[in-house]
Design goal:
about 600 residues, alpha/beta, about 20% strand
Length: about 600
């Protein structure tokens, strides 16, 4: 077994040798000195491969990169005319990535203190980018297309990029990365025009080797299951250039191939046979309209454009050893360092759906989803799912309110800010951006406000929040369920919030139904509603019987002017059917009780009359 410093030294030598070879590559085929250096690199790579044999996580990636270095050296030996390209596009990026991963595994992961210091440093650098001048780059955009088998999809993606991207000005570079395919992907990539080719003979799940070769100001990462469409790149660039605070932009796609409410309905089949219909739909859809750009608290990045200098900082944290929660982690870093993430609802790109990732996931063992959810929780101190403040169906109540200019919005406990973003986006679509104020009760979510809110207060209760607010608000809402707010007397606190509304204002609150089949199922099976906890944690939770709440509101002299919108999830219907036989209510109320089993939550809107 080699000592850590020995491995570190060998990797340092490898990077220095690769840099020297890169300088010599301009002269053509390798000379005697270059061949000697190449042989030294082979010996080092073989030593590291042997050392990392049987390792997992980040060390497993180092093992695979060592094997790939040797495979690339074999290619140089067979085709010396490729010497320059292979050194630049493969050997140097691979050894640089090995060095980065080794430093993380041995230095950063050496202690909890080191991990915390590393993450603080990344966040400080991300924050510093707000004021830092951007570097000069040879290209405006680097498009990186990744392919792992599924050649028919890869060809479709590459051909669509070439058809709908203007390379004539020399400001766009195309990098294609074959990640261990055995179906002819490598040969196909090597025949593409405009392309810089990177080849890994051995698949490396989650490779970021390409970050060492991109030369564009913006990096556009593309999986091989997309179909580029007219004006896709122009629109993405227009968004990135519209505000220096935008870190990442993502187009929309077909709704059956993406979660997170990022998709749109399509009038065609998700097949190669409907390719003409795909392009015809996109041609009509892709019309530049910044009012259709939506701020999001997080984005799924089947295709995303972001600054290259930023990508080098936020390349996936190696603690996420499986292909889960990487997007959540990246979005959290962006959100907590004050960067905007934008979904372009004026730009459609077709997405066949996780072709490359699915192929890799098949090889994963164990519950990767749960394992990486725990990793995220341990890193950020909150749960990736329970913290989003996401309540599907809110668009159904937009006609409850007039989204006029000059509005003020108060969000109670916005958490990550999904609902806050939806309100913000609706105002921007209808009139102009509102003034946004956040009232944060749980300080763990304080870092999640800078990207969206104009003002933030930290308070301990709804009463305290009401006392600190001097302005009148057009909408007061919450990024969590009503029962999760730090309430005193519920009706009294609702009166306080109502008193903060401007004439014609709306108090919009998500209210959980504790008697729904969904909630009852969790109580019966886990003794807890759907709240994430580590095995060693114990959390308390409260419940508000929403029917009692509505009865109290109905009798209230001021709060009686309210409306409800019920949210029923298709997935809950089977649960509801299974519990109906337990109901002991007869007569006219039974139908109401059965319906209540299906209603997971309601939106409660309390209205203040206009002046």
């Amino acid at each position: 077994m080699m000592e850590q410093d020995q491995v570190r030294g060998l990797l340092s030598i490898s990077v220095e040798a690769a840099d020297y070879l890169l300088a010599k590559a301009a002269s053509g085929a390798p000379d005697a000195e270059a061949r000697e250096l190449l042989e030294n690199l082979r010996q080092i790579a073989a030593l590291i491969e042997t050392e990392m044999q049987g390792a997992d996580g980040g060390l497993r990636q180092i093992y695979l990169y060592a094997k790939n270095v040797q495979a690339s050296l074999d290619d140089i030996a067979a085709r010396s005319e490729l010497f320059g390209r292979i050194v630049r596009m493969e050997i140097r990026p691979f050894v640089c990535e090995m060095q980065r991963l080794w430093a993380f595994q041995t230095d950063v992961l050496a202690s909890g203190e080191n991990i915390a210091a590393y993450r603080r440093n990344v966040m400080e650098q991300m924050e510093a980018l707000h004021d830092a001048p951007q570097e000069e780059y040879p290209y405006e955009v680097s498009i990186v297309l990744l392919g792992y088998n599924k050649l028919e999809y890869t060809k479709c993606a590459a051909e669509s990029i070439l058809a709908h991207t203007d390379f004539s000005h020399g400001n766009v570079e195309l990098i294609v990365l074959n990640n261990g395919s055995d179906d002819g992907t490598r040969e196909y990539f090597e025949g593409l025009p405009h392309a810089k080719v990177m080849n890994l003979k051995h698949n490396v799940l989650g490779t970021y080797a390409y970050t060492h070769v991109v030369e564009g100001k913006y990096l556009l990462g593309v999986s091989n299951d997309i179909v580029a469409t007219p004006h896709w790149l122009e629109h993405l660039l227009a968004c990135m250039k519209s505000d220096a605070r935008i870190a990442m932009a993502v187009p929309t796609c077909n709704e059956d191939s993406i979660p997170n409410l990022q998709g749109v309905p399509i009038p065609y089949r998700n097949t190669f046979e409907d390719m003409e219909k795909i392009q015809a739909f996109a041609t009509e859809f892709n019309r530049l309209n910044p009012r259709l750009w939506e701020d999001r608290s997080q984005l799924m990045t089947f295709l995303a454009i972001l600054r290259s200098d930023m990508m080098r900082l936020i390349a996936a944290d190696p603690v996420f050893t499986k292909a889960e929660f990487i997007d959540d982690d990246m979005s959290t870093l962006l959100r907590r360092t004050g960067w905007r993430q934008v979904l372009l609802k004026d730009t459609f790109v077709h997405h066949f759906g996780s072709v490359t990732l699915s192929a890799n996931r098949v090889r994963e063992k164990g519950n990767a989803l749960e394992a990486m959810r725990r990793v995220y929780y341990d890193k950020w101190g909150v749960d990736a799912w329970d913290s989003r403040g996401c309540f599907p169906g809110v668009e159904s109540i937009w006609d409850w309110h007039t989204f006029a200019a000059g509005a003020r919005v108060l969000m109670l406990e916005p958490q990550f800010g999904d609902l806050a973003c939806q309100l913000y986006n609706r105002y921007r679509m209808e009139s102009e951006e509102p003034h946004m104020t956040a009232a944060v009760f749980d300080e763990r979510y304080l870092p999640d406000t800078d990207y969206l809110f104009d003002a933030t207060m930290t308070v301990d209760s709804v009463r305290e929040a009401a006392e600190q607010c001097a302005a009148e608000y057009d909408i007061i809402s919450a990024g969590c369920y009503l029962d999760e707010l730090p309430l005193g007397d519920i009706i009294t606190d609702l009166e306080r919030l109502y008193g903060l509304l401007a004439p014609g204002g709306l108090l919009l609150l998500p209210v959980r139904n504790p008697g729904s089949a969904y909630e009852l199922s969790h109580l019966m099976n886990t003794g807890m509603r759907d709240v994430y906890m580590r095995p060693d944690e114990v959390k308390r939770f409260s419940v508000i019987p929403y029917k009692h709440l509505l009865a109290a509101l109905h009798a209230h002299p001021v709060l009686h002017s309210y409306r409800l919108h019920s949210t029923v999830f298709e997935a809950d219907q089977l649960l509801a059917e299974g519990l109906k036989h337990l109901l002991e209510v007869d007569g006219a109320t039974r139908e109401e009780m059965e319906m209540s089993l299906s209603v997971r939550m309601v939106f409660l809107g309390i209205f203040k009359p206009p002046a």
